[in-house]
Structures are given as structure tokens and as C-alpha cells.
Amino acid sequence: MLRIEGLSAGYSAKPVLNDVSIEVGAGQFVAIVGPNGAGKTTLFKTISGIVKPSGGAITFDGVDLLAVPPPQRAHLGIAHVPEGRQVFPSLTVMENLEMGAMTESGRRDWQANIERIFEWLPVLKERRDQFAGTMSGGQQQMLAIGRGLASSPKLLMLDEPSMGLAPSTADFIFERLIDIRRQSGLTMLLVEQRVAEALESADHGYVLEAGRVVLEGNNDTLRADDRVRKAYLGM
Amino acid sequence: MEGFFQALAAGLLIGAVYGLMCVGLGLIFGVMRVINFAHGDFMMLGMYTAFYLFTAAGVQTLFGNTVGPFVAILLAGPVLAVFGYFVHRTLISHVSGTRTASLEGEGHYAQLILTLGIALILQNGGLIVFGSVLASIRTPLSSSAWELGPFFDMSIFLNKARSIDMIMSLVVMTLLSLLITRTRIGKSLRAAADNPTAATYMGIDVDRAHRTAFALGCGITAIAGGLLATNYPFHPFVGLEYVIVMYAGVVLGGMGSIIGAFWGGMTIGLVQQMSTLILPTQLQNAAIFAVFLLIIFFRPQGFFGRMVERT
After folding, report:
1. What is the value of ipTM here, to two decimals?
2. Which of A148, B9, B76, B195 is the right S-S partner for B49, CB 3.0 to 4.6 Å?
3. Taking CB atoms and an 8 Å cutoff, what residues of chain B touch A90?
4. If you measure CA to CA, which chain A residue comes closest to B307?
């Protein structure tokens, strides 16, 4: 569904991504793990068009994504749940969800989507009229995920949903994501620093270090790898 | 006492129009974060557009002397909105929105110079095209008044034209706030203002949202300008007199708050009229800024300014 080939990108002269190739098949749950500054967020921003790549190709559902203007990419079915949540603080929870549903499919499926989102993330239903800026970090993260789901995406991209959250909240959000994935069969691309949890639930994983893919494989291969065990799993 | 209530009434009438004027600027600033120095001159263009629509384009013959001016003023709104749309498309968009990422200071320096330049071109262009003679959009209502009262032996006189100005201003303001709070377009404007990057992730074209805000802001201020012109004569440099008031209103209301800009403008109208009770007319503007400083001293974020940090 999403195929990234030989992607290089960076801010001004300094390259952040170096010849990165990643593939996400339909229905797959792919995790990209790696330390701070490995280029994970830049990779997502390049997919969404906020960062322009210096080389390589991205195709989504057979479409050359780099030729699509950034605001049009969401309409192709890519939902980006950004790092640090980035909800719209002066909009209410409901309005934030409506912004997620700006896409044609999001508008068409609005009623069904909103029911499912409220079922998965009931806190959003309770706080539907609250301004997003006044919610806690965990609630904002759930809103960011709900907002992504409201677009009826083909691919949900999650950028560190556990960032800045208490471990118990992060665990809860992870469980929700796994539930959502199990019930909807949605294709997901996850970037995470919580390597153990990410690799446990993903079908396929990539390890990104200093802008390069240093390792890839299914979760058994990755978790059996000595370097991953030492560096990320603390074994 | 009678003088006090008379000044209060006059302040409310003019304040509503100032409020609308500030809302036009507040919308542009709130959504785009662009300091538009030319906004007073867009208003001047709105005044002349209303003037020529009334006198030269047949609105006078069609609607007569009483209703005609108000029809012309309302029509000036869409005309200036279209003008603003093209100014944004051809000029402002180069130094704002998603193109600013690579510019020094997010394009703010370029915006200052560009909008100042547009202001100069409009002012001096206006001088060439319209001439330096004072113009006004007078209606028979401009020089007649309704008498309220008498309450306890005192009557308050409301200038008819200004009263209609206030009502029209409130109607436009209500329509705008419905647009901003209830419609998909309005919500996407607010989302683009809150977080342009996240708005792009949602599939909102931020540059187009900016263009919409700029066009709307120009149209609304043009209507406010036309309403002012029913009582105040104008000339090509009139924008300078008002742009300062507009900024004071926007800052008072709280940067980024559209409803706040209305109340900021209202406050300025009230202060201006009330100050005539104790100060000579020449000091009206000094009084506005004395009160402005006082309010900002105690409430630096303005009436409706958000202290909630942007995520």
C-alpha cells in the first residue's frame, strides 16, 4: 500500500534520512523504532509533504505521492497522527473530530465513524464540548487518534503516541490501538520509542538509526536480534 | 447626566461600527498572523467603492437616496473581498502561509514592507484616481435623529443613519460569527489558525484558508468603512486615521480572537465618545490610547486573549 524507496531528506544541508526504503502492505501493522533523532518524525513529515525529500520515491496505492500537493494527501486516505498530538486547542473535541473528517470518505462515513470512535475512546464522548487545549496530554492523544480515524483512512500513521505520557496512560493508549487494529483491520504505520511494546504488536518492524534502516524483519526476527535485545529491550 | 447618556449612546453606535472594522483586521491577523498595514487603505477603497456604486453605478436611481447608500455599502463588501482575494493571491501569499518556512523571521519582515508598500500605493493611487476633495455618502438620515424618552425629564437623540449603521454592523457581525463557528469553512479557518501543519495533515489547504480569511477580512472592513462614511467625510489618506484604531481594537480584544476584536472596537468607540465629556475633542485619540495602555497594563492578553498555550 505504501512503498518508500531510497528516500533521502533533510533540513537545509544536513541530511536526516539517508536512502530509506520501507514497505507497508495493506492490512499490515508496521512499526518503525529507533532512538531520538533517528529521523522517524522527518520520515512521517516527508510522507505528509511538510518536508520535501532530496531523493527517492514514495508511492501510495500506486499513486506517486511526491507529485501530490501536501493538503491533498489526506484525501488519498493517509491519516497522520502527529508527534506531540497537535490537536487544535481552540476547537472543541467535536470540532477537532470534524476537522479529521474533512476528507470525502470521512464526510460520507461520519455517522458510523463517530459512533465507533466514541466506543473505542469514550473519554471523547464525555468531553465532546470541551476545548481541546484544556485537556490532559493523554486525552489529547486520544483525540489526535480519534481525529485521524475520523477521516476513514486507508493508512493510519502514528508518530510516538506515547510521547510525554505517564507509563500507565501510554499503556492504555497502546491497548486501545491494538483493539482498534483488531476490530477494524486498519493498516497502521507506527513510530515509537517504546520498542518492546511496538515490536510485540507489529507484524513487521524497521529499526532506524541516524537516518538509515539498520535492521528489518518480523517481530520474532527483530526480537531475536542481539543488537535490538541489548540496545532497546534491555536483555 | 443627560450629556453622559447621550455620549454613551453615541459611543455604542460608533463602537459597533468600529467593532466591525476591527473584526475584519482581527480575522486576517487571527488566521494568518500577518500584520496588514494596508488594512486602513482597503477600508478607504471600500468607502470609495460604496460611493461610486451609489452615485455612478445606478444604485441611487434604483433604490433612492435613503436606502440606496446602504445597498451600495453592502455591495462594496463583496467587491473588496474579490479585490482582497487577488491581492492575497498575487502578493501576500508570497510572504505568508506555507511559503514562509524558508524566510527570515517567518516572513514577518517581508510582510511589513509589503503591506506598507501596498498602503502607499493605494493612498497615492487613490489621490490620483479619486482626487483630494472630501467625499461622503450622505443620506437624509445622516442629519436626522430619533428621540428616545423622555425618561425622567431627559431625552436621548439617536442619529438615524448611525443607528442603522449599528444595526447593519451587528447583522454582519452575527452572520460572520455563525460562519466562523458553525460552518465547515469557518471551522477549517480556525483549525488553520490554531496549527497550520496539523491542518495540512487533515487535508485543509492552508494557503486557501488564508486567502478566504484575507478576502473576508477585506470585505468586512469595507462594509464598516462604508457605514462610517455615512457620517464622516473621507479622502484617500483616511486609512491612516483608522488603521491605528483598528490595531488598538484588535490588541484590546486579544490577538487572535475575532469576537474580541469586536469588543475592542466597541471599547474604543465608547472611550472616544465618552472622553468628549471631560476632554476637548482634539484629545479624543489621546484618551483612546490612555485607556488602551491602562487596559493592557492590567490585562496584557486583551479581553478575550487566550493564555492557553498553543500545543
Report:
1. 0.93
2. B76
3. 190, 193-194, 306, 308
4. A133
